[in-house]
Amino acid sequence: MRRGIIVMALLGYSVIALWGCAALKKEKELSSTPLLEPQTMLKFSDIPVPVGFKSLPKDSYSFESGNVRTAVLKYQGKANPDQVVVFYKEQMPMYNWNLLNVIEYGERILNFERENETCIISLSAKGNSISLTISLGPKPRIFKKSEKPLK
To answer: Where are the alpha helices (DSSP H) in the chain?
Structure first.
């Protein structure tokens, strides 16, 4: 009887130890995944795009005139969506963009701003493929009570 209890205890310990090792292995795989790097050739020099993402020019447009820029730039690539979010959280401040918020509901949306512009980065995943959209535009002008809007 005592021998049976010892065998059961050893068996239970073995199962728990193996289960823990499997969980550690999965965690190690996620942490050992290389970080995303920015591309060297960019449409706008102050908005990074992860290496490996291909531009979709037929689905994109951009306009620049003086200090005003507007664009909707679309890209396709393969990456972990969480890594892309981390990429933009780390990279955009290096280009003087301030993170306003991150919205995650299957699709992920990151909102950035700086003095005169806003940038919205949205990504949606289908399998291991990610569709990335970068929307850039001027910040709307907010009128003070003493100012009259232009007609």
So the answer is: 2-31, 81-91
Q: How far apart, in whole angstroms, are the C-alpha atoms of residue 78 and residue 88?
A: 15
- Give the amino acid at 33: T
Secondary structure of 125-147 in HEC code, one letter for each residue: EECCEEEEEEEEEECCCCCCCCC
**How sure is the predictor about 25, in pLDDT bands with cuts at 50, 70 and 90?**
very low
Domain span holding position 4? 1-32
Residues 65 and 133 in one domain: yes
* Of 26, 28, 52, 30, residue with least CA distance to 40: 52
Residue 147 lies in a domain: no
**How far apart are the C-alpha atoms of 35 and 37, rounded to whole Å?**
6
Global confidence as pTM: 0.70
Q: What is the DSSP letter of 97?
A: P
Which residue carries 């065998």 as its tokens?
A: 7
Q: What is the mean pLDDT of residues 33-41?
A: 65
Structural tokens at position 28 = 């190690």
